[in-house]
Structures are given as C-alpha cells and as structure tokens.
Amino acid sequence: AAGTAVKTFEQLVEKIRASEKPYDLEKITQAYKVAEKAHEGQLRTSGDPYITHPLAVASILLDYCMDTDTICAALLHDTVEDTDVTLDELRKKFGEDVALMVDGVTKIGLVPLVSKEEQQAENIRKILMAMSKDIRVIIIKLADRLHNMRTLGSMAPNKQYKIAGETLYIYAPLAHRLGLFAIKTELEDLAFKYEHPKTYETISRKIAESEAKRAAVYTDFSLPIKEKLDTLGLKYEAKARLKSVYSIWNKMETKHVPFEEVYDLYAMRIVFDCDDPAREKAICWNIYAVITDLYRLHPERTRDWISTPKANGYQALHLTVMGPDGNWVEVQIRSRRMDEIAEKGFAAHWKYKIGEGDEESELNAWLRTIKDILDNPEPSAIDFLDTVKLNLFASEIVVFTPKGELITLPAGASVLDVAFTLHSEIGMHCIAGKVNHKLVPLSSRLNSGDQVEILTSQSQSPQPEWADFLVTAHAKTRLRAVLRKMRQPIMAKG
Ligand code: MN
User: What confidence score (pLDDT) does residue 243 get?
Assistant: First the structure.
C-alpha cells in the first residue's frame, strides 16, 4: 500500500509483484545491482546504507504507478553525481530514456535555489520549462525530495531549515501543479514542521486535544446523512478528513484567527463506488440533494469540479453546510475514480486503463496530458499561478551552458544573444555555436531546454547585420556601441 516503508530490494520486488502491473523485473533488478554496487559502503547522514534512499524513492514512484524506466532511473538517480558510474554506461545498459532521466534529476539538483520568494517562483518556472521534455524527471525529483524530507531529522538544523524552505516554495507547488496531492500535502507538513517547529508542535497538540469533541460533532453531523444514503442503496465510504497542520496554520495566518476559530478543521468526504463513469455526476448531485435536505446550504460555497475539472485533473463536488453545532462543514463528494485522481493525480488515469492498452502508450498519454497543461494555461490553472505569483507561460526561454548554468532569454533569442549574455567580448568574437552538440550558425534561434556552447575566434569582428537576429536589449546596445566605435577612425581619416 501507499507509504509502506521499503528498506530492501526484496521488499521492493514484493511491492512490484503486488501491483500486478507489467513491470520488467529483469531490467529493474539490473538497475538495482548497478546502484547497489555504486553506492557500496556509502552511508546517509542517518547512518543507514545509502542504497536505502534510492530504494525508498523507487517505492514512492511505484505508489504513483510509474513505468519500468522511471523505477530504474529512480534506483540510479544519485549514481552519476555521487559515484563513478557514467551516463554513457547507463545509456548502454538501460537505454536513452533512463540515462536522460538520471541526467535531468542530476541537473535539477544543480539549479541554484535562492531564498527570496519571487526568485524561488522564477526557479520553478525554469525547472518546469527546461525539464518539460520528460516530465518523469520532475516526478522522480519530487519523490527524491519527499524521501529526503521524511529523513530530514538526521540533518544539521541549518540544513534542515534551508531544505524545508526550498520544499515549501518550489517542490510543494510543483507537486500541486502536477496533481500529486498526497505528495504535496506531506511535503508541506514536513517542511512546516522544520521551519516552525514550535508552532507545528502547538497546532498538533491542539488537534489532539480537540479530537474527542470533534469526533462527537462529526458523528452528530454524519449520522443522518449516512442513514439517508443507506436507504438509497449506495455503496460508499464516509469519513472526516482532518486538515493538515500546515493548511490549518495557513488559514490562521491569512484570516488572522486563532486555532479555535478555524471553523472548518475537517471536511466530510464521501467516496462512492460506481462501475459506470457516465452515472457518476448524477450520483454526486443525488448525494448533494440528500445533504442539502438535511442541512442549510452556504449559498456561495458549492464547487462543481465535475462539470469543469481543475487543470490538474481534480474532480469532485464540494458544498458547505451548517452543522448541528452551528459551524460550517465542507462536504466533498467523489466517486472512487475521482478520489484516486485527487490523491495521485493523472497517474491514476493510467491505473484505471491498464489492461486495455499496453503499458507504454497509456503512460505516454498521461505524460502528454501533463505537458499540455504546462504548455496551455487555462483559467482553472490560475489558483496555482496565484499561489506562487509567477507567470509560467511568459514569452521566455531557458537554455543551459555546457556547465549546466541556466540562462533566461526572450523567446526567439539566437546563439549570438547567448554569447553577448555571457560576456560582451564573447559576443564580439562569436563565430558559431553548438546547440545540443550540433554545430549551428550564430543566427540560429534557440528553444527552451537547449544546451548551448559558444565558439569564438579572435579574428572575428562584429558585423552590422548581426542586429537582425539579436533579440536582447543588452546585446543590441553593445553591438551598436562597438560598431559606432569601429566607424569613428574611418570617418576621421575621411
Ligand atoms: Mn537522491
């Protein structure tokens, strides 16, 4: 089941078998062997053998139904950075996809993360754009971060604080964007725990103390609903979902209220079984009718995420009604299928379709959907954009230097723009570029994610026609200034 701790390869194999999905166990075993040998003798700060970390990351990804190559890349994700294993070796043994994923995860680790909130947001955008060629890279990175957060206790306090901050500003919003809600919630709670240990402790204690009272209120509230639903012959599960410590704190901060006044500490969630997706919507509204017959509806807080699902795939019907104790209670109504999507994002789609198509095509379809979301902003994506105050889809591209440095440029920028961005001298003497290891002219336009190397020659001098393919203001200004200087001696002679 989700969250089961995996400490040995045998346990991972057990979990793979239990998934009953067409995994290539042979390939995964080979990946494990390479990783085990590479990390031999290495320990984590916790004192555990290093291999327990890639195993745990692979295990998290199994919960999200990721494919064979992703599991292999997860097992190998720290080998290139921390051991003698090379990308070429991985490419030969496991293919291009696995090698590219390991490379991508390593590169994300090299993106400098600064402390200011706006710049963090900028980093998210860079990561997303540069890595959106293979979204699996980001998902591995999220699983990697989740395991690091779960084991953060053994790190030095100053490191804990830095990692927790990054997690809150970058990785949790990323998980949200991809619809990986269970990861998002856990990341937020763990990060909050290390950023505000005292507040975390206080809120946790208050939650525990109010448990009995809350349970009694929930019983009072839910009993009449359940009785009514039972008479309809529905197969369902109803439970009180407690808000996470982090989201309670968030509410206290944004609404400036003490813990005691965060009225919607819990939401009731009703998950029903239904074999026919075409009937799901009608059943949701039937349940809605049952609840609003019993309790007074809050007129402005019904949310129909079924007719218009959120961009990240979330579907449910939400309503808020007044409970018997006079407090507002949110009720979330979902089918089993919607519930899976809510917890696991689009990965759940794949799970539901298994058996109809082959493994690869379904996964690819899911990855394409995610990529579409990244490429096409929709109004329903705004909630994410608001949270981190960034414009994901600005007309900018991000390219890499051979050393992995990121350079942000306006869309349409050329190789020569990169040269000038690096240094004016490099710009003046630029003769050509290598884009993704292929030789191209300096007028060549770049795409996001390109790796760009600049070739220079001392005999090169700036040309007036360069202005035609320069896009950045800085480069244009520099070029004009130099051309003016070069003309002056000629004019003086004349
Ligand atoms: Mn790692």
Answer: 82
Number of H helices, E strands in the chain: 23, 10
Give tens-digit pLDDT for 272-289: 999 888 899 999 999 999
How far is the centre of ligand 1, averaged over its atoms, from the C-alpha of 393 (Å)? 29
User: What gap in Å lies between CA 120 and CA 160, rounded to an integer?
Assistant: 17
Ligand 1 centroid, distance to 271 Cα (angstroms):
35
- Collect all residues with Cβ–Cβ distance below 8 Å to 27 and sequence separation of at least 6: 68, 72, 94
- Whether 82 is a known active-site residue: answer yes
Among candidate residues 58, 41, 69, the one with its CA nearest the CA of residue 144 = 58
The yes-or-no answer on residue 396 being catalytic is: no
Identified catalytic residue from 40, 48, 78, 82: 82
Q: Look at residues 200, 61, 192, 75 and name the one whose alpha carbon lies nearest to residue 138.
A: 61
Q: Over 80: is that where the pLDDT of 228 sits?
A: yes
Q: What is the Å distance from ligand 1's center to 82 Cα? A: 10
- Tens of pLDDT along 329-378? 899 999 998 888 787 765 555 444 433 444 444 445 545 555 555 454 44
433-458 burial: b if 16+ Cβ within 10 Å, else e: bebeeeebebebbbebbbbbbbbbee
For residue 371, report the distance from its CA to the centre of ligand 1, in Å: 24
**Which H or E run contains 2?**
none
pLDDT single digits (tens) 156-169? 888 888 889 888 87
Note the pLDDT tens digit of each residue in 396-417: 677 888 876 777 787 789 999 9
> CA 333: distance to chain centroid?
25
Q: Cα(55) to centroid of ligand 1, in Å? A: 10
Could you tell me which residues come within 8 angstroms of residue 457 by beta carbon, excluding any fewer than 6 positions away? 429, 431
> Which one of 81, 96, 360, 375 is the catalytic residue?
81
Neighbouring residues of 427: CB distance < 8 A, sequence distance ≥ 6: 416, 419, 420, 462, 475, 478, 479
What is the pLDDT, as a whole number, of residue 85?
A: 92
Average pLDDT, the chain: 82
**C-beta separation of 333 from 353 below 8 A:** no
